[in-house]
């Protein structure tokens, strides 16, 4: 081996040795360094409790037998869902302060039990402009054909399913007809969801008298228990964690009523003459469905014009329909 090759070999070995020494020193330094303290993280969780079911529950003046396991568990399911799906339940309570004063007297006048008002709550969350994918509309979620059957005008210009008063009158007529057929309100409620033909057929084929005892599609089987759960919550919201003050409830709107029995070529211009804008007109008259009213028949329509102060948070009168809905400020 010549001298140059020897020199290269010795140099390579030396460099490798020095690199190993340096690496060992770095490892030793890291190994001997004090350990950094480990941060502990804690998470806080709200306490989750099972909603309480009273020992005695009534619906439309009739005691509900919750001794059968399936009855208790069906109510527990809906009460749990409504308690912990806060948004819609909370909105239902707030809106009830505005709409129950309208709906309740109409139901009473027609001989409908007060508990049937919860049907509207679970159907639409008391949104008068609600429209389902199946085209059911308004507070009572009436289908177009059902609305027409029970006396409502339903077309592209006027849809009275969205009129809280007229829709409640129509729903009352349906409920009275169904009660005359079934003789109990739980079957009436089931028919509102599943249809009279279906409920009548199943009551006969399953040889029972009450919808509580029917095996049906899941949505319809849950329906009456959703009404029961909503009733329990709205009778005592704070017991289920819904704590509202009076000013958080949606306040009733005061109106002056203008009768219209002629065609309206432009609702926008008509609204301006009344001192309101088109948005306000449509918000408070959701039965108006287009910018014109042909009205070839000369029918009289009642248009609600809101009183300005009732549209102002600072000037509106604070009213509470049910004192159980609020807690002290």
Would you kindly provide a written description of the structure presented here, covering whatever features stand out?
The chain has 329 residues and is mainly alpha-helical. The chain is built from 11 helices and 4 strands. It has 2 domains: 57-248, Lysozyme (Orthogonal Bundle); 255-306. Strands 1-2 form a two-stranded antiparallel ribbon. It has a two-stranded antiparallel ribbon with strand order 3-4. The longest helix has 30 residues, at 3-32. The N and C termini lie far apart (100 Å).
Series of H and E elements:
HEEHHHHHHHHEHHE
Named at the architecture level, the CATH assignment of the largest domain is Orthogonal Bundle
What is the highest CATH level, the class of the largest domain?
Mainly Alpha
Count the strands?
A: 4
How many domains make up the coordinates? 2
For the largest beta sheet, what order do the strands appear in spatially?
Answer: 1-2
Assign an overall shape: globular
Strand content: 5-15%
Alpha-beta content class:
mainly alpha
Radius of gyration from CA coordinates: 33 Å
What's the CATH topology name of the largest domain?
Lysozyme
* Count of helical regions: 11
Helix residue percentage: 40-55%
**Terminal residue distance:** 100 Å
**Integer average pLDDT:** 90
pLDDT below 50 for ≥5 consecutive residues: which ranges? 1-33
The profile of the biggest β sheet is: 2 strands, antiparallel
């Amino acid at each position: 081996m010549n001298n140059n090759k020897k020199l290269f070999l010795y140099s390579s070995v030396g460099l490798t040795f020095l690199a190993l020494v340096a690496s060992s020193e770095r490892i030793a330094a890291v190994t001997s360094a004090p350990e950094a303290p480990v941060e502990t993280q804690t998470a806080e969780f709200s306490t989750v409790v099972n909603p309480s079911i009273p020992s005695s529950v009534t619906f439309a003046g009739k005691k509900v037998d919750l001794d059968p396991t399936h009855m208790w568990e069906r109510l527990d399911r809906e009460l749990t869902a409504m308690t912990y799906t806060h948004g819609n339940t909370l909105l239902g309570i707030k809106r009830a302060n505005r709409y129950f004063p309208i709906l309740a007297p109409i139901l009473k006048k027609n001989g409908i039990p007060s508990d049937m008002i919860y049907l509207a709550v679970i159907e639409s969350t008391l949104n008068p402009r609600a429209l389902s994918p199946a085209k059911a509309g308004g507070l009572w979620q009436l289908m177009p054909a059902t609305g027409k059957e029970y006396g409502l005008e339903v077309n592209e210009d006027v849809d009275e399913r969205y009129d809280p008063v007229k829709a409640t009158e129509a729903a009352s007529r349906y409920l009275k007809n169904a009660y005359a057929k079934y003789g109990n309100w739980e079957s009436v409620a089931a028919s509102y969801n599943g249809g009279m033909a279906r409920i009548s057929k199943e009551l006969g084929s399953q040889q029972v008298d009450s919808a509580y005892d029917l095996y049906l599609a899941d949505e319809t089987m849950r329906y009456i228990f959703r009404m029961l759960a909503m009733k329990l919550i709205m009778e005592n919201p704070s017991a289920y964690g819904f704590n509202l003050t009076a000013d958080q409830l949606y306040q009733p709107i005061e109106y002056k009523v203008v009768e219209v029995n002629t065609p309206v070529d432009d609702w926008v211009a008509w609204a301006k003459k009344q001192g309101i804008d088109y948005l306000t007109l449509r918000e408070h008259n959701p039965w108006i469905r287009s910018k014109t009213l042909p009205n070839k028949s000369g029918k009289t329509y009642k248009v609600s014009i809101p009183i300005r102060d009732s549209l102002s948070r600072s000037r509106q009168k604070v009213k509470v329909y049910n004192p159980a809905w609020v807690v002290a400020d």
